[in-house]
């Protein structure tokens, strides 16, 4: 789908092409939450998250990620894509709690559609994708990294990764669960998801939620080495294999996208869930104080 069509699908509030483009352009002009550096000779792009303070996946950030991904997919010189945080310490704090708290149903629906779109695009990405996890990686951050073909994590015990939704009093949607099961297996997912576990690097490696743990100062070179290994495989064979492996999981969401949006809106709008999110946000503030 063309960039403008994608933007229009993601920005349903906009009534005309002009409005879509004006909104996207305005978002771009305001800030770049995603920085893309391309090494054309190597055929590798690095997408850096830059959404201070904690790279939360706000609606704007998710939209920028989708637009940049589409641009890279259309650039036939780019065969591999590395995700990382521009500022070590936090890879991504996950979905933006402020897009899920205190807003109206139309906003929740718009946000969820964008998050679905990002996951669908990433999970089916024809490029080799590697997550360079150089900081905390909870919930939606973990989801993004699990959509990648390979995960390299910096060996810093302060960094943790996992789907911790239950600890916030919310439920990971079925396609988050499917992605986790595909990554670490069913039994490990039963334990991990119900307890909302966040794993430090050594445990993350043991459970298989990351593929490699390396000293922090080597995390980027390790990701490049992994990328070189994967790029040695002919694209068409690897891409078809990836598509075959991931199609059932993708189809599962595609079949019920609208129902999933409705379920999210109704779940997140509940008073009890909003109260829980409010308390969680307060807890984050108090921890800081
Ligand atoms: C029946 C089935 C129905 C299905 C329906 C589905 C519903 C479920 C829907 C969604 C799934 C949710 C997925 C998610 O991703 S939820 C987000 C989960 N994220 C977290 O739990 C991480 C929370 N953050 C942290 O733990 C830490 O911030 C940190 C480790 C990432 C970084 O720590 P530190 O550097 O010490 O920073 P601070 O904690 O001080 O935070 C700074 C600042 O940022 C705010 N903030 C942190 N995380 C988020 C966030 N995810 N969204 C928005 N804002 C965030 C934090 O509150 C501070 O704000 P300030 O006090 O105003 O400065």
From TrEMBL:
The protein's matches in Pfam families, at most eight in alphabetical order, are given as: ECH_1
Query: Keywords, A to Z?
Result: Isomerase
Keyword Isomerase listed? yes
Q: Name one GO molecular function term.
A: isomerase activity
Q: Does the keyword Transcription apply?
A: no
Q: Which family does it belong to?
A: Belongs to the enoyl-CoA hydratase/isomerase family.
Name this protein carries in UniProt: Enoyl-CoA delta isomerase 1, mitochondrial
Taxonomic lineage is:
Eukaryota, Metazoa, Chordata, Craniata, Vertebrata
């Amino acid at each position: 789908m063309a960039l403008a069509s994608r933007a229009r699908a993601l920005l349903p509030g906009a009534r005309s092409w002009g409005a879509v483009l004006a909104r996207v352009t305005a978002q771009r002009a305001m800030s770049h939450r995603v920085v893309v550096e391309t090494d054309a000779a190597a055929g590798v792009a690095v997408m850096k998250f830059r959404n201070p303070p904690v790279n939360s996946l706000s609606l704007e950030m998710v939209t920028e990620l989708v637009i940049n991904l589409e641009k890279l997919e259309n650039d036939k010189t780019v065969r591999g894509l590395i995700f990382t945080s521009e500022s070590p310490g936090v890879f991504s704090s996950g979905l933006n709690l402020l897009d899920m708290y205190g807003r109206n149903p139309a906003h929740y629906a718009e946000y969820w559609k964008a998050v679905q779109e990002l996951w669908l695009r990433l999970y089916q990405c024809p490029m080799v994708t590697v997550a360079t996890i150089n900081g905390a990686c909870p919930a939606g951050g973990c989801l993004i990294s699990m959509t990648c073909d390979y995960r390299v994590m910096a060996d810093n015990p302060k960094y943790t990764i996992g789907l911790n939704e239950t600890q916030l009093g919310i439920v990971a949607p079925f396609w988050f669960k499917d992605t986790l099961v595909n990554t670490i297996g069913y039994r490990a997912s039963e334990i991990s998801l119900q307890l909302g576990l966040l794993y430090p690097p050594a445990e993350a490696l043991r459970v298989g939620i990351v593929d490699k743990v390396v000293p922090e100062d080597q995390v980027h070179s390790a990701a490049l080495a992994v990328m070189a290994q994967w790029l040695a495989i002919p694209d068409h064979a690897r891409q078809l294999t990836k598509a075959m492996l991931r199609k059932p999981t993708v189809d599962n969401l595609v079949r019920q996208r609208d129902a999933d949006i409705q379920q999210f809106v109704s779940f997140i709008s509940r008073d009890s869930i909003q109260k829980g999110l409010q308390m969680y946000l307060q807890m984050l503030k108090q921890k800081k104080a």
